[in-house]
Amino acid sequence: MAPARARKTIQEINQKIRDGDVVVLTAEEMPDLVQEKGAAKAAEEVDVVTTGTFGAMCSSGAWLNFGHSDPPIKMKRVWLNDVEAYTGVAAVDAYIGATQLSETQGFDYGGGHVIEDLVRGHSVALRAEAYGTDCYPRTHLDIEIALEDLNQAVMLNPRNAYQRYNAATNSRDETIYTYMGALLPGMRNVTFSGSGVLSPLCNDPEYRTIGLGTRIFLGGAQGYVIGPGTQHSPATGFGTLMVRGELREMSPDYLRGATFERYGTTLYVGIGIPIPILDEGLALSTAVTDEQIKVKILDYGVPRRDRPTVRETNYAELRSGQVTINGREVPVSPLSSFKISRKIADVLKGWVAGGQFTLTEPVESLPRDIQFRPMKSRAPVPFVEDVATGKVVTVPPNMSVEEAAKRLTLEEVNNLLIQDEEGSLVGILTSWDIAKAVATGARLVGEVMTQKVIIAHKGEPIDLAARKLEKHGISALPIVDSRRKILGMVSDEDIARFVGRRRW
Amino acid sequence: MVTYFHLEFPREIVTKPIMSDAIRKTSASINILRARIDETHGEIVAEVTGDRSEVDRIAGYLRDRGVIVQELSGSVSVRVDGCTHCGACVSICPVKAISIGRDFEVVFDASKCISCRVCIPVCPVRAIQAPPL
């Protein structure tokens, strides 16, 4: 779409803000007005549309400057409440990142919680180590500090405010714990993130008004967009923002340390962006609805970079609380708070209408045509079938336990794979199962075999197989194809042998 | 009739296939809602469908095998403090006691709650608390 001819300028809107006669709507209110009066009329009437989002944003953190101790220290490593901060810069500068875990509390406390504690005015334990230099002789530091004691505390988030985000479900037969929350087995729930109709970038998808220097609501204070976020991918509709703001001015209502069970810690960040309605085009783009914002539901049960798509959906369906997957109604959890997102859009609306917040002209636009690229691999990922050397001995389920015991000894293997007439894997028999058969008097392999076999699929990366072996405390996995035909056996030794050869 | 149980497996019995034995021996319909098992301890929240005598038989069988069995009832109060209304808990609740209300606030229906506690660790800001079992 060609940019429509500008009818209003940011300066004119700012004058209205100062004069107290600016008209502001939230992005939730705008669709109805545009529907009712049309985009041209809406663009005339409305000056600013406010957006808001409050969700888990892992790529968040803060630069802190502690001031110099006496004698001074050049911190080599530094911890805040036992959460390590990055200090590979000057002597007393450090970056506390949201996902860094506490060395004493693990998943229960992390960098996000440190930031929340600082903003709440709590004091935190600062511990530092150094190697000592002629100019910085001190080697240890152990003190309590609070936000007010710091010289600078700048929130600087490399990637926030994802334009939209794919929803998640899980096809596996076990619950998995992800950054998209706990995903129940057999696709029994779906989770999603983002504020849809209120999403800042969805309301200005061509980034006509959002760019470097755009003043925004960040964590309850006024902050700025300082460029595109990392992984900014406008070509696929997944734009992101890099933002900064003064931590000291922020509020714990809009910054919350959080834990995703058995995944890690993060920070819930509140962001709101005002969009100046310069012309009809912006009136139209801010009239976007939840229905129009499409995302995929991805299967997080497949832990690969390219997760399979289960189906397409949109924010309206996700927000309804239920989606249909394979003819079944599946309950949905949002992970972002729509209630607080809405509150942010309202607060920002109040700031603009009340003359406390004027708009800025971006110094530089966000890139509009780049696409996020996958990591460059030096070597192809090895698959289980590439490293598997394990010996496979298959027997039918109707073989006697005695015969199976003989095969086990004769072939010198730890287990037998049970194969039905079609050649499909139906079970596994270990020496333990044979002991059980002796104890219970079972006669046939099929009666005592373990039916729930932990398997590796053809084409599975060895890292994934290694995780299965570790998780289940087993030493080998049968490799099967999509029809459960047995193709081989991959053992921990196979993987260790390969990893041993790897040049890091 | 649906009854909910909290089952605790002490260290000595954690390696035994007690649940599968219980299912085979009692022909019960048991749905495991949540399980946390490691080498030292096991904890399961399960839904058992069947009439009272059948449910009691299963509970009795599990107790005989050394499982600490506790029937869950909806009377335990859950305290919610500092909720951000993100909704992470709503799709996890097995009895739909948690939902999102008209004003996009997370609504907790104490009358439906079976105090299974599956929502507690799921809450990103640890806003849900309940007395230990």
Written overview of the protein:
The complex is a heterodimer of chains A (504) and B (133). With 504 residues, chain A is α+β, with helices and mostly antiparallel strands. The mean pLDDT of chain A is 93. Chain B has 133 residues and is of the alpha+beta class. Chain B folds into two domains: 2-72, ACT domain (Alpha-Beta Plaits, 2-Layer Sandwich); 75-133, Alpha-Beta Plaits (2-Layer Sandwich), CATH 3.30.70. In chain B, helix 1 (18-26) runs antiparallel to helix 2 (52-64). Chains A and B meet through strand 3, strand 21, strand 27 and helix 7 of A and loops of B.
Please name the defining characteristics of this protein.
heterodimer; A: 504 residues; alpha+beta; nine-stranded antiparallel beta sheet; four-stranded antiparallel beta sheet; 13 helices; 34 strands; 22% helix; 31% strand; B: 133 residues; Alpha-Beta Plaits; 3 helices
Structural class of chain B: alpha+beta
* Low-confidence blocks of residues of chain A: none
Percentage of helical residues of chain A?
Answer: 10-25%
Largest interface, C-beta within 8 A: A-B, 31 and 21 residues
Strand content of chain B: 25-35%
| % residues in beta strands of chain A | 25-35%
CATH class placement of the largest domain in chain B: Alpha Beta
Return Rg of chain A in Å: 28 Å
N-end to C-end Cα span of chain A: 47 Å
Structure summary:
With 504 residues, chain A is of the alpha+beta class.
Topology:
The complex is a heterodimer of chains A (504) and B (133).
Chain A lengths: L9 H10 L4 E3 L3 H8 L1 H7 L2 E3 L2 E4 L4 E5 L11 E4 L2 E3 L7 E5 L3 E2 L3 E5 H9 L4 E6 L10 E6 L6 E9 L6 E3 L6 E3 L2 E3 L6 E3 L18 E2 L2 E4 L2 E8 L12 E6 L8 E6 L3 E9 L1 E3 L3 H6 L8 E6 L9 E6 H5 L2 E4 L2 E7 L3 H16 L10 E2 L18 H4 L6 E2 L5 H11 L3 E5 L5 E6 H10 L4 H4 L7 E2 L4 H11 L3 E5 L5 E6 H10 L3
Parallel strand pairs in A: 1-2, 13-24, 16-27, 29-30, 32-33
Antiparallel strand pairs in A: 2-23, 3-22, 4-7, 4-12, 5-6, 5-10, 8-9, 10-11, 12-20, 14-15, 17-28, 18-19, 18-22, 19-20, 21-22, 24-25, 26-27, 30-31, 33-34
Helix pairs in contact in A: 2-3
Chain B lengths: L1 E8 L8 H9 L2 E9 L4 E8 L2 H13 L3 E5 L6 E2 L17 E3 L5 E3 L10 H4 L5 E2 L4
Antiparallel strand pairs in B: 1-3, 1-4, 2-3, 5-8, 6-7
Helix pairs in contact in B: 1-2
